[in-house]
Amino acid sequence: MSALRKKTNRRPTKERRETDNLVGDMTIDDSANALRIPTKFKKSVRNVSNEVKQEVTKQEEELVWGDTDEENLLKDTKGRRNRRRSKCQNNNDEDEGIDYPSDIWFIISEYIQPEAVGKFARICKSSYYVTTTGKFWFHLYKSYYKFVPSLPERLQPQCQRLYGLRACVIRALHYNYFRTSEGEGDDMSYLRQEEPHSLVKRKCILMWHKEGKVRWYFYFKLKEVSKIRNSLLKQNKQCDVKKTEFLETLEDVAVNPEDGCKVLRVSCLKYSMLPPVIGLVLQTVSINLMPGFREYRLQLGFGTSDVPSTLTNQIILRNVIGYSILNWWDPAYPHQDVGYTIELPQNDSWEI
């Protein structure tokens, strides 16, 4: 009986076989009474872990692919929106704004003040075109003209014509409108005074001097080199001018022979003999105090080019008590119609 019981005990029962065949079950004896730590799990355990891993990876892949699909959809929609926006922007750039007729801009220009002409001209091409017409400058002159005793004859109403009208109107406004708006007794005018160093790299096209009551005045007319080149090109093109083109030049509103020119006026207590520098380029400028700290010493270096190393002539003015840089619209600028007289001493000799 004992032997039979032992045999029956050795045989695996149905329940035991079912428990052994259960997927993923491990006995306590497999882990607690093991002689060494097993490096490999049972086949059943490995199958379960593989199945679990496969299911988890499938779920993760579904989630990931679902997210990527949503992201792709979002990217696609954003890309389409950006394309639509870029197309709309291109269409707006091509058809931006409304092109108003020139008559409307002419009506608006009648309410533009002289100091706002530059801003008005930069609005669009149509507004800029208005500022190039004689109608605009005639209306501006009539609206802001005031009688001034010192106004030259060329700037008076009876002498106004299309040729060079723009420059004449600007000069006339500086005689009456801008002087009254800024005030004649302006104590801050010296802060707006330019320095002689700003005239470097300009070519001297004229120089003269004249005697005053107490002092001597020396004038140097300096012009931008680029303006000189452009004027020479225009002169060469106008050599074979036809009759129609000649009439067009007579109606040119923007003609200004003094464009790009500035005059350096230096006042001295004593006369100084100076070498001629007409046709030379101003290269260097230096101002120093003389002994006594009351007068200045102005030194101007001229050469054939704008390179300082090619200095050829130097002008030294002593006992300088003041200087000023005059633009072509300044009332003190020596225009031909102003009637400046140049007085030279009798015994005057030039040192070269």
From TrEMBL:
GO cellular component: SCF ubiquitin ligase complex
Comp. bias (Basic residues): 1-14
Family matches, as InterPro entries: TMEM183 (IPR026509)
Lineage top rank: taxon: Eukaryota
Coiled-coil features, chain-numbered ranges: none
Start and end residues of each stretch annotated as Disordered: 1-25, 76-95
Record GO biological process: regulation of protein stability
Annotated protein name in UniProt: F-box domain-containing protein
Species classification: Eukaryota, Metazoa, Ecdysozoa, Arthropoda, Hexapoda
